[in-house]
Structure prediction request, 334 residues.
Amino acid sequence: MPRWNSHQLQGIAAALLSAVVLGLSPVFGKQAISAGTPWLTVVTFRTVAAAGLLWVMYLAVPGLRKFIYIYPVGLIGSLTAGLINGLGSLLYYNSLGRLDASLAQLIYMMYPLFLTLLARLDGYTISRLTLFRLFMALTAVYFLVGMGTAQADGLGVLFMILSSLTFALHLLVNQRMLLDMPAPTVALYTLTAMAVTVLVAYVGSGLPALPPTPLAWEAVGLLTFCTLISRLMLFMGMKRLGGVQAALINLNELLVAVVGATLLLGERLTGLQWLGAVLLGLSVLLIARERSLGLPQQPTPWLQILTARLTDTPIPTPPKPAPPVKPPAPKPRE
Prediction:
């Protein structure tokens, strides 16, 4: 079993915390929508408020001000990722208003599969164990959510598939950014771009109604807190583990969502859902057997590519990881 260093342990802890708060997000979002809040109001208020709180925190805390600095290429990349995820958020909450929550969450949890395929195209090596863990996790997702008997809305299914794909694509773009920048910087500008994207949609739709009740405002507030914490922890986990490993750990958000729905919405787990919970837990525990944890085959950072283009020099090739050194065989006793 490989030994984890403190860098990898921090990534695992951050990814697990991100999974917890992300799992609570659909519960609070559903509460707000069920309380009469338009879906566009929910996604706009939670994103804009989270981005505003992050800017206030960075400006107010002297130790965080250094994370505001960003170079031009990093800014363009982070804003691009935020735009992609902002559009995906609009698709997600629109679909959530059309589909049962269980079916919607099942479709959305396809994003690790999309991310794995996209990362492979970007040059990352995907181990057989990672693929097996992905298969286990997706099987667990199917058992945890379950398929309802109601006829699904075709447009809602399409929107949720596109939302899942955009989330995976934005993770891949941010994975590139995290090669050159700290996670708090990527989180700040990605979330800011998301806020601008959904705000434009909100204003363009004629300013839908505000949350009508104190319960709805409370749900939106809790959703905002989850959005803020999840973004910071998600990118921190990605920087230390890579996007695919962090996404696999983040599949536990579905387990948290099921438990949250049980406690807050009165739902109950079935036998198949408990089986899914066990499979999901085993998928995460198998991370201990990953030989290349935290050491993905990284592509050339975009900053180096830009510098090479501007200075007309060859693009540097990332160094290959050194092969493991075998310990010397013990000498036979004379």
